[in-house]
Amino acid sequence: RASVKKITTSSQALDGLLGGGIETRTMTELFGEFGSGKTQICHQISVNVQLPPEKGGLAGKALYIDTEGTFRTERIRAMASALGLDPKEALSNIMSIRAINTDHQIAIVEELQDLIAKDDRIKLVVVDSVTSHFRAEYSGRENLAARQQKLNRHLHQLVRLAEIYDLAVVVTNQVMARPDMFYGDPTVAVGGHTLYHVPGIRVQIKKSRGNRRIARMVDAPHLPEGEVVFSITNVGIRD
Ligand code: ADP
Ligand code: MG
Questions:
Q1: Which helix (H) or strand (E) holds 31?
Q2: Less crowded by CB within 10 Å, the N or C end of the chain?
Q3: How many CA atoms lie within 13 A of 196 on its CB side?
Q4: Ligand 1 centre from 35 Cα, in Å?
Q5: d(CA 87, CA 12)
Q6: Cα–Cα distance for residue pair 207/75, rounded to 1 Å
């Protein structure tokens, strides 16, 4: 694990929970209800991966697979400016790709291999959200097995990318707010599950008061379980 690198989230608390930041060679799942801040974190790390190592980045680029149409260039510009990066340049270092359905999403990831092999500055791949098209296309109990199988293959492909190319993969997974989820078993998510069967780091994001959010480490292989508080501000993720 010595060669694992970290990308700062711009929150010391959240970085602490993650053992220093979002790790390369691993898939990190951010799960939580609508509005919990998953997309905001994805935007922030797409900017932060570009920072020099002494500022918590990897002097790298990001690939952002957007399945819900929630990628916002204005948000990237604002986050970049706040960190002293040139907003235009920061945007040009993020390749955003809109995936319209599961087959398209899978095809994009299959083609990423070539892109990444040719450009060793790509250090982060985001899939926001990794589950939405799967849930929409394979709704109903009778389709659950087929969905899980197809999703699993897709997730393992992402994990492989992370391992082979020493990059961070971050996926989001929207789950429903239910009392039994927040204070009970976090794996009881909509459609049945978080992405439990896939190796990686799982972080639950929960709404708290105002712009405060709670991040909880769930079932991490090498990190202690725990909870921290961070904020979503107009300049991005902060303590
Ligand atoms: P999720 O992806 O988990 O559904 P988001 O990442 O889209 O949630 O988070 C949405 C929340 O982020 C909003 O409810 C708001 O609180 C906060 N947010 C979004 N944009 C800004 C902004 N420009 N300034 C401050 N807070 C913002
Ligand atoms: Mg979102």
A1: strand 27-32
A2: N
A3: 10
A4: 6
A5: 23
A6: 20
| Closest ligand 1 atom number to CA of residue 232 | 26
Q: Which two tokens stand for residue 84?
A: 């002293």
End-to-end CA distance of the chain: 27
Q: Nearest ligand, CA of residue 43?
A: 1
**How close is the Cα of 233 to the center of ligand 1, in Å?**
9
Residue with token string 């990318």: 161
Q: What was the pLDDT predicted at 145?
A: 85
Q: State if residue 35 touches ligand 1 by the CB under 6 angstroms criterion.
A: yes
Q: Give the pLDDT of residue 2.
A: 62
Q: Quick check: 188 pLDDT over 60?
A: no
Separation CA 201–CA 11 (nearest Å) = 18
Instruction: Give residue 177's pLDDT band: very low, low, confident or very high (50, 70, 90).
Output: low
The protein residue whose alpha carbon is closest to atom 17 in ligand 1 is 232
